[in-house]
Amino acid sequence: MNHTSKLLGVASIFALAAFGTNSANAQSNLTPPNGHSMTAAGSTITNKVTVNYQVNGVDQTAKSDSNSIIVDRKVSLLVSEVGAETTTVTPGQKEAVTTFKLTNNSNATLDFDLTAAQLSGGTAAHGGTDSFNVTNLKIYVDNGDGSYGAGDTLLTTPYIDELAGDGASRTIFVVANVPVEMTNGQIAGVTLTATAREGGQAGSEGAVLTETQGANTEQMDTVFADDHGPVPGDSDRDGKSSDDDDYTVKAAMLAVAKTSLIIWDPINQATNPKAIPGARIQYCIRVSNEAGGADAENVAIADDLPSEITFETGTIKLMGTVASEKCQLDGQAGDGSYDGSKVTGTLPRVAAGESRTLLFTALIK
User: What is the tally of structural domains in the chain?
Assistant: First the structure.
């Protein structure tokens, strides 16, 4: 009676210990402690029990047994936009960049198929409505420095090869061109979707993964543990992850106005002058840039002069201001030119919300 009770007590203690061990392992697969790796998929966990006992005080041959399980594959991935702001672009810009991060939170090395796409209307990632498409959409993988540049790899076959689990990540750049006809404030939404695939062989994209259905098997099963993303078709526990980003156009919005003022004539001179032969005309070309857009740079002006007037040498002034809707005489002399038929000059910058001028004088023939 006593021997049986002792054996049952030992067996009970072992059973509790084994249950505690299995529970701890299961919990660690779900949420590994900080600084610890998850048990790799396909690993074998073996527990061995040994029972020692006596009969009439004499040690008997110990009894033992063991149990082995194969760790299943937990597939968990996350695609996330890097940064929390839209990518500001200008009309005609080449290789505009949006940045994403792909993280493999699985307990296995996996391949990841990548798909970059454009929204088709609807609300963009940072608000506003998707209203145009970028062109020449491409996917690059970062070389490790965290910024898009010449050393990054263009994925002609868009997949990430052999990305380790336990939180290993890669930075992905989605790069596109902006059509030149776009206007200020227009938005183009883009998305990136990653789909987990079989890993284990470098240099080629693995097969599509499927989740194991039904009861646990003795082999390595596959369990999807991902959340849904914003891209249509990306659901909970489907082996996919997605996120979105957008481009917002910031363009200059220029308006041009040309005015003239008779400032002198040979009869009245500067007092109420009239537009008679010999009169001096002051021309002002005003370039205004609306507030809220981008600065305009290298604004080249070309003004063809009619045959009825004669340009006055040395009168060109650039970058003048406007006050009370009148052109001021505060421009810079020395730049600009006249080639015998037209006056030309360049305004280095017209900032958003300001006006700058090209001013010159001519005589009526």
Answer: 3
The CA distance from 309 to 296, in Å, is: 31
Between the alpha carbon of residue 1 and those of residues 4, 5, 8, 56, the distances in Å are: 5, 6, 11, 12
* Residue 219 shares a structural domain with residue 310: no
Give me the phi and psi of 77, to 5 degrees please: -135, 160
102: CATH: 2.60.40.10
Last residue of a domain, one of 216, 249, 282: 249
The helix (H) or strand (E) run that includes residue 4 is helix 2-30
Residue 201 pLDDT: 85
Do 283 and 332 lie in one domain? The reply is yes
Mean pLDDT of the chain: 91
pTM to 2 decimal places: 0.80
* Residues pairing with 70 in the sheet: 44
Q: Are residues 208 and 288 in the same domain?
A: no
Are residues 171 and 245 both part of a single domain? yes
- pLDDT (0 to 100) of residue 34: 54
Range of the domain at 54: 2-71
Which residues neighbour 109 within 8 Å (Cβ) at sequence distance 6 or greater? 162, 163, 164, 165, 199, 200
Name beta bridge partners: 58. 55
| Residue 35 pLDDT level (bands cut at 50, 70, 90) | low
Are 209 and 72 within 8 A, CB to CB? Answer: no
Mean predicted confidence (pLDDT) in 323-341: 95
Instruction: Out of 24-38, 141-155, 214-228, pick the least confident.
Output: 24-38
Which has the closest alpha carbon to 125: 188, 56, 52? 188
The share of the chain scoring above pLDDT 70, in percent, equals 90
Of 249, 264, 299, which residue is a domain's last? 249
